[in-house]
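Dear Dr. H.,

I hope your travels went smoothly. While you were away I took the liberty of generating a structure for the chain from your last submission, since the lab meeting agenda had it listed for discussion. I wanted you to have the full record in hand beforehand rather than looking at slides cold. The sequence, exactly as received, is reproduced here:
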Amino acid sequence: MMDTGAAGLARRVGETMFSGDVASRDTMGMQLVSCEPGRAVMRMTVKELHLNGHRICHGGFIFTLADSTFAFACNSRNKATVASGGSIEFLKPGQLGDVLTCEATEQVLQGRHGIYDMKVTNQVGDVVAVLRGKSAQIQGAVIAGTT
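The corresponding predicted structure, in token form, is as follows:
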């Protein structure tokens, strides 16, 4: 039996987006852990190619993990949505071999705009960064004919 509820749609939206997300999947090495209505979780391991001149994870890669997770959360209801802004706070460096997990949670969704909070943690639960993002719905759907 096909899951036609909101949770099933969000899961299918996540799978559809991730299959075409070359940047997150192949370039960054991210994994989509879950995609639920208004929420998503992604993970990546810090590799040598993610290190900056201080031998810590480049902040741009941490931002990209948070931004990608944000994208899955704000598209989870199958309404095409993009980021319209975001602000990040880096709290702890990511180290080579760290497994970074980002959880995105919808805070507000009103009309075409939403506010989402992303928290990036390492494998021991230390908070590495937090991002607050604003989304804007655009025309279309991730999976055509299902909205």
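Two observations you may find useful: Residues 85 and 135 are 7 Å apart (CA to CA). The two ends are 19 Å apart (CA to CA).

With kind regards,
E. W.
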